[in-house]
Amino acid sequence: MEEYQLLKIGELAKLSGVSIKALRVYEKKKIIKPVKVDEETGYRYYSAGQMEMIESLLELQDMGFTLSEIEKVLSGKSSKDELSEIFDRKRDELQDRIWKTEARLKELEILKENLGKDSGIKAFNEMDDDERARTLAKLIRVNEENVRQVLSEVVWL
Predict the structure, then answer these.
(1) Dihedral, CA atoms, 69, 75, 77, 82, nearest 10 degrees?
(2) Where, residue-wise, is CATH 1.10.1660.10 in the chain?
(3) Which among 146, 93, 109, 132 is positioned nearest to 154, based on CA atoms?
(4) Nearest-angstrom CA–CA distance, 73 and 126
(5) Inter-residue contact 78 to 39 (CB < 8 Å)
(6) 3-state secondary structure 98-120
């Protein structure tokens, strides 16, 4: 490759929106390696085509993949079965997060509804910390959406 076709690490960082430090971490983890390292200066050079690899890496990070998982996915060394297992595990993690988030949203709605029902309660901003904590504890009740979480927490106490 001609040198004029190569990008220095700073140029690649600027074009990709990734910091130089991150590119060095990716190199250390063997995910994105420079195509050339100048032995005299230590400058790292990358090909323009490596931008696609960085875009894939960033997309996988956004999905919650760790750098170790990303290295397995992008290295080309993992079998189809291994990749399938990695993707299944990540799908399960994301689904679990969705369920937990949905349960929290329902709990917030219940808390909001219960807060509006008791007009005899003085305003939260007029309460001290202990009164606020007791009031919130009364408002949050075990319900079908959070019973599994409450039971789990009780078991682990």
Answers:
(1) 30
(2) 3-74
(3) 146
(4) 55
(5) no
(6) HHHHHHHHHHHHHHHHHHHHCCC
Helix axes 20-28, 9-16, angle to 10 degrees: 110
Residue 136 in tokens:
């919130």
Of 98, 99, 90, residue with least CA distance to 148: 99
Give pLDDT tens digits for 15-41.
999 999 999 999 999 999 999 999 999
Name the nearest CA neighbour of 103 among 152, 143, 153, 156.
143
pLDDT, position 127: 80
Q: Cβ(27)–Cβ(52) under 8 Å?
A: no
Which residue is listed with tokens 């696609």? 52
| Domain 3-74 annotated CATH 3.40.50.1010 | no
pTM attached to this predicted model: 0.64
What is the arrangement of strands in the sheet containing 44-47, beginning at the earlier edge strand? 6-8, 44-47, 36-37
Locate 71 and state its tokens: 């290295």
